[in-house]
Write a structure and sequence with these properties.
CATH class of the largest domain: Mainly Beta
Number of helices: 3
Oligomer: single chain
CATH architecture of the largest domain: 3 Solenoid
Structural class: mainly beta
Strand order of the largest sheet: 6-9-12-15-20-23-26-29-32-34-35
Shape: flat
Strand content: 25-35%
CATH superfamily of the largest domain: Hexapeptide repeat proteins
GO molecular function, one term: N-acyltransferase activity
Keywords: Acyltransferase, Lipid A biosynthesis, Lipid biosynthesis, Lipid metabolism, Repeat, Transferase
Distance between the termini: 71 Å
Subunit structure: Homotrimer.
CATH topology of the largest domain: UDP N-Acetylglucosamine Acyltransferase, domain 1
Low-confidence stretches: none
Function: Catalyzes the N-acylation of UDP-3-O-acylglucosamine using 3-hydroxyacyl-ACP as the acyl donor. Is involved in the biosynthesis of lipid A, a phosphorylated glycolipid that anchors the lipopolysaccharide to the outer membrane of the cell.
Protein name: UDP-3-O-acylglucosamine N-acyltransferase
Number of strands: 35
């Protein structure tokens, strides 16, 4: 799509030379021919090194756009990017190329394997499973009935995905207009699940906007867990039932998330940290410590606080 067409869609002013835009991407990984956006001064530091051909920015940041990168002024760059994401969304149905299923894999009746997808030796795909296009599934995996694996998902070896899990659905991302409408952000990334991961029944793992949502090797995820877009779970994590992990959260290795715990987005939990059941993680946490409560504190502090509260009411 030409920059001039993009400006027409957004109602933005077009000037200068026209150019072709082949896709959308984030500032840090955008390349030649791609459009990115910057919507706040705190992200302006990423502008100077961007390799994008053009950037949506508000008028206050146009002077920060480096030479050689075309600045497209727009009052709400995040909203503009959401509007454009529909035009650059990947097609749900790709070219009709045959799936590559190992002779030593078993795909049971009623399962569907999409175009150009690969299934490795010893893998069992049970009835009702839907596997989209361009999916890779390694060796000795088990995909239980009615699990759904969206396009472009990459799954390692010895992975077990239980019934009704959904891997690679769109993240919950919207930009908002002044009159209160919610504009969907289309997600073109994927999910990567490394070796020896187990994913419980009815768990959902969202694809990223641009890059990958990653579940690293050895991690075990219980039933009814929600993992948002762009998250990264380190090796050997334990995530207990009804936990919700918001977008762009990073868990280090061997992190334990207790039942019904939850995180805000864009934070980091250090290696070997443990969050007790119903913990509300609203900030980044150091590793090798135990935490509880909301607002979250170290477990020993939370226990002392609750003991004081109990004594107070007993004495009064």
């Amino acid at each position: 799509m030409k920059i001039s067409e993009i400006c027409k869609i957004l109602g933005a002013k077009f000037s200068g030379d026209d150019m072709d835009i082949t896709g959308l991407n984030s500032l840090d990984i955008a390349g030649d021919g791609e459009l990115s956006y910057c919507d706040s001064p705190k992200n302006a530091k990423f502008l100077k090194n961007t390799k994008a051909s053009a950037v949506l920015v508000n008028s206050a940041l146009t002077s920060d756009v480096p030479n050689g990168v075309k600045a497209v002024a727009y009052d709400n760059p995040h909203l503009g990017f959401a509007i454009l994401s529909k035009y650059f969304a990947k097609e749900l149905l790709r070219d009709n190329k045959p799936a590559l299923i190992s002779d030593f894999a078993k795909v049971m009746s009623g399962a569907y394997v999409g175009s150009n997808s690969k299934v490795g030796n010893g893998t069992l795909i049970m009835p009702g499973v839907f596997i989209g296009d361009n999916v890779e599934i390694g060796q000795n995996c088990t995909i239980h009935p009615n699990a759904v694996i969206y396009n472009d998902t990459k799954i390692g070896d010895r992975v077990e995905i239980h019934a009704n899990a959904v891997i690679g659905s769109d993240g919950f991302g919207y930009a908002h207009t002044k009159d209160g409408r919610h504009i969907k952000i289309y997600h073109n990334g994927n999910v990567i699940i490394e070796d020896d991961v187990e994913i419980g029944a009815c768990t959902t793992i969202d694809r990223s906007v641009f890059k990958s949502t990653i579940i690293k090797k050895g991690t075990k995820i219980d039933n009814l867990v929600q993992i948002g877009h762009n998250c990264e779970l380190g090796e050997n994590c334990i995530v207990v039932s009804q936990t919700g992990i918001s977008g762009s959260t990073i868990l280090g290795r061997n992190v334990v998330m207790g039942g019904q715990s939850g995180t805000a987005g864009h934070l980091v939990i250090g290696d070997f940290a443990q969050c007790a059941a119903r913990a509300g993680v609203s900030k980044s946490l150091d590793g090798n410590k135990n935490y509880a409560g909301h607002p979250i504190v170290e477990l020993k502090e939370w226990l002392r606080l609750n003991a004081k509260i109990n004594r107070f009411f007993k004495d009064n």
